[in-house]
Automatic annotation (TrEMBL):
Molecular-function annotations in GO: oxidoreductase activity
Name of this protein: NAD(P)H-dependent oxidoreductase
Keyword set, alphabetical order: Oxidoreductase
NADPH-dependent FMN reductase-like domain sequence ranges: 3-146
Assigned EC number: 1.-.-.-
Stored Pfam families: FMN_red (PF03358)
Domain of life the protein comes from: Bacteria
Keyword Oxidoreductase: yes
InterPro entries in UniProt: Flavoprotein-like_sf, FMN_Rdtase-like_dom, NAD(P)H-dep_reductase
Amino acid sequence: MIRILGIGGSMRPGSTSQVLLRRALATLAADGCETELLDLRALQLPFCNGDKKEPWPHFPDVRRLREAVRAADGVILAGPEYHGTVGGALKNAVDLLDFEHIEGKALGALVALGGRSNSNALNDLRLIARWLRAWMVPQQVAVPQARRALVDGEPVDVEVAARVDELARAVARAAELLRVRDDEAVTHG
């Protein structure tokens, strides 16, 4: 069974990115994937000091984050775009990871913007994924005017809903392909 982890990087109550991440994970659960959500609001993470091996004994949620990412076949990163880039909470969480946690995994990105749509945070997440030797799927979701994008927890625009579902399924497909590749390498290696 494919295991997909969602990391919700918004600190705002009622966050659009968090609602859409939950939708993505529900879609995958309905498709038969095992899913888990790490809501960064519920974790106590220190600011990264650049030492990716630091065990952070006074912050057990660092180990929880790292183990959840390591155990996942794919990860969906979701959060806000602030000042033209990835929000600080999500960026800090990713900074606490190292190659051993995320290398070779399928990743997807979903961001919510307060203003017009652009791809700044999505592009930055792609760069981060590449630096960590992970595989970012081509599908991505940017939701402009995010505070107006949902009504009663559902996307106003059916195209946004369809794109979230497509992103989720793309991460699961890529994760499955990467796992098959890794399993074959071990078998024939």
